[in-house]
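Can anyone check this?
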Amino acid sequence: MTLALACSGTQRAKGPPGPKLVVLIVVDQLPTWVFERDRKLFTGGFARMLREGGYVASAELPHANPFTAPGHAVIG
C-alpha cells in the first residue's frame, strides 16, 4: 500500500513531439522527368513542397500488383 501511494504522483516521460502535419501527395501518370525539367517553373506551395518536402523519383512497392488502386493503398 505504501508503494502504491509513493508511486501515484509519478508521471510518464514524454517522447519527442510528432510532426504538426503530414501531407502525402501521390502524382499518378506524370513522368518523373517532368519534375526535374520544369522544377524552376514551379512557384508557391508546389515549389515549397519540392524544396522542403520529400521526393521519391522511383519507388518500389513490396507486392506483386503495383498498379494504381493497390499501389496507392499501401503508401503511408
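Reply from J.R.: I decoded it. DSSP finds four helices and no strands in the chain.
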